[in-house]
Amino acid sequence: MSMADDVTAHPEGEPTITEGVTPDRTWPLYEVFVRGKRGLNHVHVGSLHAPDDHMALHNARNLYTRRNEGVSIWVVRADAITASSPDEKDPFFSPSADKVYRHPTFYAIPEDVPHL
Amino acid sequence: MDRDEQELAEAFDATVAAEGRIEPRDWMPEGYRKTLIRQIAQHAHSEIIGMQPEGNWILRAPSLRRKAILLAKVQDEAGHGLYLYSATETLGVDRTELTEKLIDSRQKYSSIFNYPTLTFADIGVIGWLVDGAAICNQVPLCRSSYGPYARAMVRICKEESFHQRQGFELLMTLMAGTDAQREMVQDAVDRWWWPSLMMFGPADGDSPNTQQSMAWRIKRHTNDELRQRYVDMTVPQAAALGVTLPDPELRWNDERRAHDFGAIDWDEFTAVVKGAGPCNAQRLAHRRAAHEGGQWVRDAASAYAAKQQTRRQEGEVAA
Ligand SMILES: [Fe+2]
Ligand SMILES: [Fe+2]
């Protein structure tokens, strides 16, 4: 694909990478859907820009599932849907499990300190 | 306003009045859209610029534990910025354009991030006071009338609790240490308390947009209401920590069932908003350098995507 193919999706973008122009203006928008846990539907959580499906999925994992918020992600560009494969689940999601300090309950605060 | 638009406006008003949510494809008044873009973009920029004062201490954190926590926190702030840029894009603006406006000083960010982080105690105080003030501002925004903004705020608020508690715990640890460590905490509190109060924005009398924003239910409380709530929440926390909030006029008012507190230096606030704070120039220069220095990464990602695409197409032809 030449970058020019993106022009239809993003008519305001520049067709090629020229100096001073940030390519992510021409990167397509992906909508991100996360399955919170087995038994639940994928739910729309937001969007991001990425140069291709693969990077969209990777960035969606970093952006939307830093705390075990999901077991599966779909990124959808235009009429295409891409889901993370179940085989990838472990390496794809495990880094968040070992960072317990990202959760407020990791911090012992005395009972009598209010509103914290 | 023609008849159709009149009907659309009535439907919009009725939705807002009934505590319904406005969604991206709905009709909305132009002023509503513009106010949201300005407010959400300013909020997004604050999250992004807000990484700098704390990022300043990642390499100098005193232990691996503190370093990992600080990294996770700063990464969260990047995430908050991106959730919010994503919300603004539903209003028809482009994230890249917003970044350009930020680094060209055409859009603002919270003045709090124009103050320097001088010691590691500042990291604790930022978590406690600055994230604490942010929580106070943001919890009501989870009920903001614009759906994508409200949903981004729900996500953000869940993560902010970790930010505040790690800060408070850091300060408790320092307070249990040496006299020098306790002095370091008090010094940081003395420097951050007043700027934290300024995070709620101008006094109600000087905040002309508040009434319209509240009518549209973009905002749910006035600046002064939120500031009062914050003071009342923070006073007992300061007592538990054993620090003094640097305001001789701060005291409980039994009649008002709230704390009285001293006058804010609005001249300082205005000066910092206008660019004369201790770190304004540095923050923007750093943001610009990060954006421009990251250009090769974006170029490489685009080139890689284009190459993969070509390979796939060639593979299809061969097959
Ligand atoms: Fe944040
Ligand atoms: Fe935060």
Automatic annotation (TrEMBL), chain A:
InterPro entries: PaaB, PaaB_sf. Pfam families: PaaB. Gene3D superfamilies: Phenylacetic acid degradation B (3.10.20.520). Residues 1-22 are annotated as: Disordered. NCBIfam families: PA_CoA_Oxy2 (TIGR02157). This is 1,2-phenylacetyl-CoA epoxidase subunit PaaB. It comes from Actinomycetospora termitidis. The gene is paaB.
